[in-house]
Each structure stands twice: as structure tokens, then as C-alpha cells.
Design brief:
Layout: E1 10-13, H1 23-50, H2 57-86, E2 90-92, H3 93-126, H4 131-134, H5 137-163, E3 172-173, H6 180-186, H7 192-225, H8 230-258, H9 267-291, H10 294-319
Parallel strand pairs: 1-3
Antiparallel strand pairs: 1-2
């Protein structure tokens, strides 16, 4: 058999639990989570797009982060929720290919974006007067394009090498979506090269981004410590608090899942950990950034007032 020929035409996604009595609970829970993630990230994306008060590099990147979170959750959860409604856990071969690509793309780009956001905070604290000049709108757009291309390349290569393997008999994916490691477990060929490739790619992408993010925060802390006023230090730290929280959760989950020895792999544990970076973190991102950020809350109030005034004026015109 050739290495690029597959007998399997569809896969069965086992899901988070094999106990049917938990299906209703899991469906309601993840429907709620997906709704919160979608609404929260859409609000952040809309606010950063239309409110002039959020027309800064920090909020440009925050809006891009929300877009990635929408892509990430939408690649996984709709199919998962549909399977509970239709009572079918089947996904086609090419549907699995598409799901893997459109999941790994936002995950890859988000790793790079979190690194960029750490550097952005360093520039904002180190050179506040030149911040808008150094990180201009055109620079932000170019950065978004570059990291998107890098993420696309990483996603395409991972997807290609995963589905280049033959899948012959066992088609039951022990996960709640098409993920690399569970798929490699099903391949009826030697997956050593794939495992080395995944490990190497994630060390280069994940660990390098993590180390660069840590380096940015070393410089940030060093800069903050030079600020004389306690209020100035508090404000500087507050601008980084939300980002540090997201980075800790996201990198921790990704590194645990991909960057570890083969002997320590446990797909049952991976399913739980995967919910952190695939579902929980994208849901918490807008909540963490909005609850801790006065500018976002004020922008939300301004947009609501603007909509209310528009509605009031429209109603008045209709009465006349």
C-alpha cells in the first residue's frame, strides 16, 4: 500500500465521554460556552472596529485575537454540538481534514499574536510618547498578515503530514474533534516522523514564542521598576495583567499537549487539557479583557448610547 492512500472514508469522533447519560449535560454546557464565546468575542471585535476611543495598536491586536478565538471555537464546537442533536458522531474524511486545518491555523497564529502583544505592551510602557509612531496602523496590519501566513504554513504542513498517512481499519478518534495526536494513534503506518515533526514544529513555534514573551516581560518589569510613582507602577502593571493571565493558560495547555515525550501521551487527559486552549481560553479572553479594562467598558457604553440615540431619533421621525 502506498503511504498516501487511505481506505477510511469517514471517522467516528468519540467525544468527551462515552457515557450516553452525560450527553444532554455536555450539550447544554458546551452550547452555553459557545454562545458566550461567540457573543463576547463579537462584541470585542465590533467595539475595536467602530469605536474611535479604541483606535490603538493594543485594541487592534485585541480585535484580531477575538477573530482568531471565533475561528478556533467555530472549527470545533458546531460539529460537536450537531453530533449530539443528530445522534451521529461521524465526520467525513475531508471534513476531518478541514477541521484540523481550520483549528490549527488560529491556534498557531494566536501563539504568535500573544508574543506580539507582549512586545506591544513593552513599547507602550517603554516609549509611551513614540508608541503610536513605532506601532502604527500599517505596522499592525503588516504584522497581522505576516503571522497569519506563518500560521497558515504551520497548519498546512501539519495537516498534510497527518493525512499523508494511511488510515485502514480503526476510524474511532478518541477526542472531541479531529486533533493531530489522536489521528496519529489511528494510522496504520509508522508515525515516528510525524511525531518528531509535530514536536519540532511546536518547540520552534510554541517554545520560541513563549521565551520571547517571557523576555518581553523581563524588559517590561525592568522598565516598570524604574517608574518612581506607585500609581504609575500600578497602571503599568494593570495594562499587562489580562495578557499575562491569558498567556499562562494558553501556553500551559499547548505545551502540555504537544511538547512532551511519547511515553507520557494520554488521550483521555489530552481531551480535558484541549478544552483549555480550544474552548475555555477563547471564551475567557473577552471576559478577562473587558472586566479588567475601563476603556473597553466605556467604549461599550458609548456604542450603546449611540445606538439608543439613533433608535430614538428614528422613532421620532416615524411619529412625525
Amino acid at each position: 500500500m502506498k503511504a498516501n492512500v487511505s481506505i477510511v472514508s469517514e471517522f467516528i469522533i468519540l467525544g468527551l465521554s462515552t457515557r450516553p447519560e452525560l450527553d444532554a449535560f455536555i450539550f447544554v454546557l458546551f452550547l452555553f460556552i459557545y454562545t458566550v464565546a461567540l457573543i463576547g468575542n463579537l462584541i470585542i471585535l465590533i467595539l475595536t472596529s467602530i469605536d474611535e476611543g479604541l483606535n490603538t495598536p493594543m485594541y487592534f491586536f485585541l480585535g484580531f485575537l477575538s477573530l482568531l478565538d471565533i475561528c478556533c471555537t467555530s472549527a470545533v464546537l458546531p460539529k460537536m454540538l450537531t453530533s449530539y442533536v443528530l445522534k451521529s458522531k461521524v465526520i467525513s474524511y475531508y471534513g476531518c481534514v478541514m477541521q484540523l486545518f481550520f483549528f490549527t491555523w488560529p491556534v498557531s497564529v494566536e501563539l504568535l499574536l500573544l508574543t506580539v502583544m507582549a512586545y506591544d505592551r513593552y513599547i507602550a510602557i517603554r516609549n509611551p510618547l513614540r508608541y503610536a509612531t513605532i506601532i502604527s496602523r500599517s505596522v499592525c496590519i503588516n504584522i497581522a498578515i505576516i503571522i497569519s501566513v506563518i500560521g497558515s504554513f504551520n497548519s498546512m504542513t501539519n495537516t498534510y503530514f497527518t493525512f499523508r498517512l494511511p488510515y485502514c481499519a480503526d476510524n474511532k478518534i478518541n477526542h472531541f474533534f479531529c486533533e493531530i495526536m489522536p489521528l496519529l494513534k489511528l494510522a496504520c503506518a509508522d508515525t515516528y516522523f510525524n511525531e518528531i515533526f509535530v514536536f519540532t514544529a511546536d518547540v520552534i513555534l510554541g517554545m520560541c514564542c513563549f521565551l520571547l514573551t517571557c523576555l518581553s516581560y523581563v524588559f517590561i518589569i525592568n522598565t516598570i521598576m524604574k517608574i518612581r510613582s506607585a500609581e504609575g507602577k500600578r497602571k503599568a502593571f494593570s495594562t499587562c495583567a489580562s495578557h499575562i493571565t491569558i498567556v499562562s493558560m494558553y501556553y500551559g495547555a499547548v505545551i502540555f499537549t504537544y511538547i512532551r515525550p511519547r511515553s507520557s501521551l494520554s488521550l483521555d487527559k489530552d481531551k480535558i487539557v484541549s478544552t483549555l486552549y480550544a474552548v475555555i481560553t477563547p471564551t475567557l479572553n473577552p471576559i478577562i479583557y473587558s472586566l479588567r479594562n475601563k476603556e473597553v467598558k466605556e467604549a461599550f457604553r458609548r456604542v450603546i448610547k449611540r445606538l439608543y440615540k439613533t433608535k430614538t431619533s428614528t422613532c421620532t421621525c416615524n411619529v412625525k
